[in-house]
Specification:
This protein is an alpha/beta fold. The chain has eleven helices and 26 strands. The strands form eight sheets. The protein has a six-stranded mixed beta sheet, with helices on one face. α1 (15-27) runs parallel beside α9. The longest helix has 20 residues, at 135-154. The two termini are 30 Å apart. Mean pLDDT is 90; it is low at 428-450.
C-alpha cells in the first residue's frame, strides 16, 4: 500500500528465524523504510541443546529462554501461530494466544517454521509417551521423574516400585543420548533424599534400531558415549525399539515387556505441517528452494532451516540435513538475501561445510568433534560448555552460575507441578505443545528449529 513501509515477515523464532531477523536488521541501513515482523508462538528464543539439563534440574528453565524483544531491537514480535499462507495475496493469517485471528500482509516472507516430533504408528505411543521439543516438555519430564521416585518411596509393592524406578528413552541420537546420560545422575540425587529407596535400582534404558548410539558420529566418539552410558548403568539396547506402549509399560521389538511409567520419545523430527498447506512445491515435506533460499516461482518468498530442502552444494544431488548448524547459517543468509532483494547488498548462495559437534553427557563427561578433531572426557566438556556459552544469544552468565551451583550444591529435586501430562501431548499438531525454536549444536544433530 502507498505510504506504508516495506514489510518483511519472518515465520518462526528458532535458530533459522532468529538469525534471519538479526541478519536482516544488520544488513539494512538505519534509515531504510523497512518493517521487520517476526511471528512466533512464544516471546522467546529457545536454546534447545540445554533442555536435557533443564530436565535434570542442572539449569533453570529461564536460562534457555532468551527474550526476543530484548535481543532483536528493531524487530516487531507478533505473538501467534500461523494458520494459513496466501502467496497470491502476499499475506498470511495467524491466531494470537487469546484465540483472535489476524491477517498480515508482506512484501517479503521468510518461512522458518522448523520441525515437530516424528510420531511413528506404534500402538499406545501417542497416548503414553512424551516428546522432548520444548520447555514445557522438559519441565514435565523433570517433575514426572521426581514424582515417580517419590511415589516409589510411598509404596510397599516391590513390582510397582521397580516400575516407577524404570525410565525408558527411545532414540539414541543426540537428544536421546543426552537425556539418558543425564538421567541416572538425576535419579540418584533424588533417591538419596528418600532413605526407603536405599538399594533400589534406578533403571534407565536407551533404545534405538540403529546398531550404535549416536550413529551419525565418528565410531570412536560413539564408543566413548556408549562407555559413559554403560558405566552409569544405562541399558543400551541397540537394534531394539518399542512395539507397543501401555499404561503399565512398553513391549520391546524383542518381545520383552518392560514395566515402566516413563517413556521419553526422542526418535527424531519431521517438517512442520504448515508447509504442506502453503501451496508450494515440497520434497519429503520440506519446501523446495534454490541455493539462494528463494522459493522457485515466488520472488517474494524465502525459506530456511528444517522447513526448507536446501540444495547441499558440498554434496551434489542432496539437500542439507535438518541441523542447527545449517539452520543458523541459512537463517543468516536468508536475512541478507532478503535485504539484497530490497536493494541492500548482493544475493549469495548457501554453502557450508560441517564444522563438528558437541554432545554433553552430564557430570564431567562429553563428546566433541570441533573441526573434526575427536575428543571426549573433561576436555570435551570444556569445549562443549564453551561452545554453548558462545552460541547463546543471552543468559550466558546466569547459565554459567547455574553450572557452578550444580557442581557445588548438586541437583534440586522439587517438582513444581506446573505442567501436567495433557499439556504436552506427543502429537505435536495439538496446540498445547511448546513449539519454540530448536537447536542442536554444532553439526549433524537432528531436529533443529527452522
Amino acid at each position: 500500500m502507498s505510504g506504508e513501509p516495506t514489510r518483511v515477515v519472518i515465520v518462526g523464532g528458532g535458530f533459522a528465524g532468529f538469525n534471519a531477523a538479526r541478519a536482516l536488521r544488520r544488513a539494512l541501513p538505519r534509515k531504510a523504510d523497512v518493517e521487520i515482523v517476526l511471528v512466533n508462538r512464544t516471546d522467546y528464543f529457545l536454546y534447545l541443546p540445554l533442555l536435557p539439563e533443564v530436565a535434570a534440574a542442572v539449569v533453570d528453565p529461564r536460562r534457555v529462554t532468551v527474550p526476543i524483544p530484548g535481543t532483536l531491537p528493531g524487530v516487531r514480535l507478533a505473538l501467534g501461530e500461523v494458520t494459513a499462507i496466501a502467496p497470491d495475496k502476499d499475506s498470511l493469517s495467524y491466531t494470537d494466544p487469546e484465540g483472535r485471528a489476524h491477517e498480515l500482509r508482506y512484501d517479503r516472507l521468510i518461512l522458518a517454521v522448523g520441525s515437530v516430533n516424528k510420531l511413528l504408528p506404534i500402538p499406545g505411543v501417542a497416548e503414553h509417551a512424551h516428546g522432548f521439543r520444548g520447555v514445557a516438555e522438559a519441565l514435565y519430564l523433570r517433575d514426572h521423574v521426581i514424582r515417580q521416585v517419590e511415589l516409589a518411596d510411598a509404596t510397599d509393592d516391590p513390582d510397582e516400585r521397580a516400575a516407577r524406578c524404570t525410565f525408558v528413552v527411545v532414540g539414541a541420537g543426540y537428544t536421546g543420548t543426552e537425556v539418558a546420560a543425564q538421567g541416572p545422575l538425576f535419579t540418584q540425587a533424588v533417591a538419596r533424599r528418600h532413605p526407603e529407596l536405599s538399594g533400589q535400582k534406578m533403571r534407565w534404558l536407551l533404545l534405538d534400531l540403529a546398531p550404535k548410539v549416536l550413529p551419525e558420529l565418528d565410531p570412536r566418539l560413539s564408543r566413548a558415549a556408549d562407555r559413559v552410558l554403560r558405566k552409569r548403568g544405562v541399558e543400551v539396547l541397540t537394534g531394539t525399539s518399542v512395539s507397543e506402549a501401555t499404561t503399565d509399560g512398553v513391549r520391546l521389538t524383542t518381545g520383552e515387556f518392560v514395566p515402566t511409567r516413563t517413556i521419553a520419545w526422542c526418535v527424531g523430527v519431521r517438517p512442520d505441517p504448515l508447509v504442506h498447506g502453503a501451496g508450494f512445491e515440497t520434497q519429503k515435506g520440506r519446501l523446495v528452494v534454490d541455493t539462494t533460499l528463494a522459493v522457485p516461482g515466488q520472488s517474494r518468498v524465502f525459506a530456511c532451516g528444517d522447513a526448507a530442502a536446501v540444495p547441499d552444494v558440498t554434496r551434489p544431488g542432496e539437500v542439507t540435513a535438518m541441523t542447527a548448524q545449517h539452520a543458523s547459517r541459512q537463517g543468516t543468509l536468508a536475512g541478507r538475501n532478503v535485504a539484497a532483494s530490497l536493494g541492500y547488498g548482493h544475493l549469495a548462495e548457501y554453502k557450508h561445510h560441517d564444522l563438528g559437534f558437541v554432545v554433553d553427557l552430564g557430570g564431567k563427561q562429553a563428546a566433541a568433534n570441533p573441526l573434526h578433531v575427536p575428543m571426549s572426557g573433561w576436555i570435551a566438556k570444556i569445549v562443549t560448555r564453551g561452545y554453548h556459552l558462545l552460541s547463546m544469544p543471552g543468559n550466558r552468565i546466569r547459565t554459567a552460575v547455574d553450572w557452578l551451583l550444580n557442581a557445588v550444591l548438586g541437583h534440586q529435586s522439587v517438582q513444581l507441578g506446573l505442567v501436567r501430562s495433557a499439556a504436552v501431548p506427543l502429537d505435536t499438531t495439538a496446540p498445547a505443545v511448546d513449539p519454540a525454536a530448536r537447536h542442536e549444536p554444532p553439526s549433524t544433530r537432528t531436529g533443529t528449529d527452522g
